[in-house]
Amino acid sequence: xxxxxxxxxxxxxxxxxxxxxxxxxxxxxxxxxxxxxxxxxxxxxxxxxxxxxxxxxxxxxxxxxxxxxxxxxxxxxxxxxxxxxxxxxxxxxxxxxxxxxxxxxxxxxxxxxxxxxxxxxxxxxxxxxxxxxxxxxxxxxxxxxxxxxxxxxxxxxxxxxxxxxxxxxxxxxxxxxxxxxxxxxxxxxxxxxxxxxxxxxxxxxxxxxxxxxxxxxxxxxxxxxxxxxxxxxxxxxxxxxxxxxxxxxxxxxxxxxxxxxxxxxxxxxxxxxxxxxxxxxxxxxxxxxxxxxxxxxxx
Length: 299
Description:
By secondary structure, the protein is α+β, with helices and mostly antiparallel strands. The chain is 73% helix and 8% strand. It is built from 10 helices and 4 strands. The protein has a 4-stranded antiparallel sheet with strand order 2-3-1-4. The longest helix has 43 residues, at 164-206. The chain is elongated and about 100 Å long. The model is unreliable at 9-14 (pLDDT under 50).
């Protein structure tokens, strides 16, 4: 009944944009005052946040580079398909090209293979014993086995081979890197929320009476929450800014590694890491504050 009455009253109250701007100014001022009240503890919180975010960003950026190395190495892997003497290489190529995840197919005629072998080795004058060969490249290393099994069903295929052990190791590295990244994100989130929660707890304790008075006066919960949530987001944002300094050195080091091995660095990797770092730190900071103040607003 009361909720319906409130909603009906709000509908008939004209919107005063100047008043709303004043409220936003007041909330911003409260946020700034809360940060000032925290004093020297702000430095400890921000530097701790920066250290956590630096570890996360370093792991994430390194993971992107390792994935790039694995992808480049995996793209060099190919399946060698040896055909029967009576087979038509072009027809087999057309059939294999229909399979999913096949990126490219190269035909190596048996005459070409035999000519190269004779140039490299001293061989007797005998008939060419080599078959026509197809070199099949797959889009990703984890799809090699699936494509291999599909090609095996073609009747014209005599034999096949590929570096299975290397492909398995590449797939394992990718899986480990992804797992470590997820674990680091989880740890970062937990530590960030814990630090922010404890900090906001101290601020709330210092303003406990003021919050109780505002509640008794009927002040909106969101009006009380907003400065604390913004304070948590502020710690996340400033921690990320500080973490950018070591992250730039890590970026330069990884670029040099890519240049040394002549493997291109993943495009927009640094921008992606920065975007994720700022987004997650601000989000976790705001969430930590929200959970902390929520307990004090429960009736």
